[in-house]
Automatic annotation (TrEMBL):
GO-annotated biological processes: glutamyl-tRNA aminoacylation
Keyword vocabulary terms for this entry: Aminoacyl-tRNA synthetase, ATP-binding, Cytoplasm, Ligase, Nucleotide-binding, Protein biosynthesis
Pfam family, one: Anticodon_2
Function: Catalyzes the attachment of glutamate to tRNA(Glu) in a two-step reaction: glutamate is first activated by ATP to form Glu-AMP and then transferred to the acceptor end of tRNA(Glu).
Full protein name: Glutamate--tRNA ligase
Lineage: Bacteria, Pseudomonadati, Pseudomonadota, Alphaproteobacteria, Rhodobacterales
Organism per entry: Jannaschia aquimarina
GO cellular component terms listed in the entry, alphabetical order: cytosol
Domain Aminoacyl-tRNA synthetase class I anticodon-binding: 337-460
InterPro entries registered for this protein in UniProt: aa-tRNA-synth_I_cd-bd, aa-tRNA-synth_I_codon-bd_sub2, aa-tRNA-synth_I_CS, aa_tRNA-synth_I_cd-bd_sf, Glu-tRNA-ligase_bac/mito, Glu/Gln-tRNA-synth, Glu/Gln-tRNA-synth_Ib_cat-dom, GluQ/Sye
Reactions that this protein is recorded to catalyse: tRNA(Glu) + L-glutamate + ATP = L-glutamyl-tRNA(Glu) + AMP + diphosphate
Stated family: Belongs to the class-I aminoacyl-tRNA synthetase family. Glutamate--tRNA ligase type 1 subfamily.
Length: 463
């Protein structure tokens, strides 16, 4: 093996990209990038009935949104079927595999008899040690001649040593009677040919590792480093499913979670670096290693995800937020005036958790006159309040448009009427934004500018 690792993600294009697949991709990407290695993409599209171009495109889209760039061209497993068959024939020639002519009815009869006698129902083919000269004409499968004695041990970087007794494993089919390869064979051949050194995947594949190790051994190929990571569970501790909410990674994109926040959160699902919860990509790449992966299943916590999302939005550069909002709007179909939003981003990015919340908080900047106050805001625009706004208008017209002078002008009118600043800020808020929950009135006026601010106040006092 080379010092620089080669990792891969190998999703099946049979639907959306599941959040578990996204996290597995992230772990592989982080490990490769942290170690100066290579991250490859293989599309396991052998299920021709369920594999669709749309689902393949969804894989690309999910990885691209997450910012997980892969190296080289994606590999199609289906297109490599001749190579898989070639390896099966090589194993046949070397004596590590054999042709089996048993029919499905014969296999089922064997299992029924074993069940009745209380024996193992693992199929033991009568063709395992047969003389090829006795083989009949007709279809056959190629089976692995698996060792019957001893055990197969897997050294797993997460789970430790995992040992399976060989008498618990059957002679699995490598090549079907129609010449198509099985999943077990295809995965091993692809990983070997692609130079994969580290197979980081969900621990639902742990039972496959012993079987796959036997193929590596039969071909005298170096085994990869296996790292089987725990699955993601819902908040109730049960396997993640639709009942827990969104399970597709692009659903979170449509919810307005920034990609860097999703990367941060997914990295913490089953991996940890001390007590660090919030970190950037550079830190994740510097810190990530397999020994930080936990053995216990991780639990999806949407509140924690939103908290991480809010921290990332607050820390993002304004132009990064603008790009993220543009992507979210295109994906969700929301209409956002980015030109109007742009100057408001800096004052609204604190205290929100998602991109749609940020857009909503910037409503004052993207709304057009006349500003229609909602029910609560309208109550702040009573006769007395409108009178104070009318008095304020000439002071604002003559003020230098700085926060200090704006605050001084508003404070002076409030004091002249013997009220606190808040008493005047409420109708001012209603006039400028039409809402009661907004950024600071002074921040809003600075974003809107003198002419737009005065026009909105005049509209409010004229009603």
């Amino acid at each position: 093996m080379t010092n620089a690792p080669v990792t891969r993600i190998a999703p099946s294009p049979t639907g959306m990209m599941h959040i578990g697949t996204a996290r597995t991709a992230l772990f592989n990407w982080l490990y490769a990038r942290a170690k100066g290695g290579t991250f490859l993409l293989r599309v396991e599209d052998t299920d021709r009935a369920r594999s669709t171009p749309e689902a393949t495109a969804a894989i690309y889209e999910g990885l691209e949104w997450l910012g997980l760039d892969w190296d080289g061209e994606p590999v199609s497993q289906f297109e490599r079927a001749p190579r898989h068959a070639e390896v099966a024939e090589q194993m046949l020639a070397s004596g590590h595999a054999y042709r089996c002519f048993s029919t499905q009815d014969e296999i089922e009869a064997f299992r029924n008899e074993a069940r009745a006698e209380g024996r193992s129902t693992l199929f033991r083919s009568p063709w395992r040690d047969s003389d090829p000269s006795t083989h009949p004409e007709g279809p056959s499968v190629i089976r692995l001649k698996a060792p019957r004695d001893g055990a197969t041990a897997i050294e797993d970087a997460v789970q430790g040593t995992v040992t399976t007794r060989n008498d618990q494993l059957d002679d699995m089919v490598l090549l079907r009677s129609d010449g198509t390869p099985t999943y077990m064979l295809a995965v091993v051949v692809d990983d070997h040919d692609m130079g994969v050194t580290h197979v980081i995947r969900g621990d639902d594949h742990l039972t496959n590792a012993a079987r796959q190790a036997q193929i590596y051994d039969a071909m005298e190929w170096n085994r990869p480093v296996w790292a089987h990571i725990p699955l993601i569970h819902g908040p109730d501790g049960k396997k993640l499913s639709k009942r827990h909410g969104a399970t597709g990674v692009l659903e979170y994109a449509e919810m307005g979670i920034p990609a860097q926040a999703m990367r941060n959160y997914l990295a913490r699902l089953g991996w940890s670096h001390g007590d660090d919860e919030f970190f950037n990509d550079a830190q994740a790449r510097a810190w990530f290693d397999l020994d930080g992966i936990n053995k216990a299943p991780a639990r999806l916590d949407l509140k924690k995800l939103e908290s991480i999302s809010g921290q990332h939005i607050a820390a993002m550069q304004n132009h990064e937020i603008e790009d993220a909002v543009r992507g979210w709007a295109e994906r969700s179909g929301a209409e956002v005036d980015l030109n109007a939003l742009r100057p408001a981003i800096g004052i609204v990015k604190g205290g929100v958790k998602t991109l749609p919340q940020l857009v909503d908080r910037a409503h004052f900047a993207t709304a057009s006159r006349p500003i229609e106050p909602d029910e609560k805001a309208a109550k702040a625009l009573d006769t007395v309040s409108r009178g104070m706004l009318s008095e304020l208008t000439p002071h604002l017209r003559n003020a230098s448009w700085t926060r200090e002078e704006l605050e001084a002008a508003v404070t002076a009118i409030a004091e002249a009427h013997g009220v606190g600043l808040g008493k005047l800020a409420a109708p001012l808020r209603a006039a400028l934004a039409g809402r009661t929950a907004t950024p600071s009135v002074f921040d809003m006026m600075l974003v809107l500018g003198r002419e737009e601010s005065l026009a909105r106040i005049n509209d409010a006092t004229a009603t």
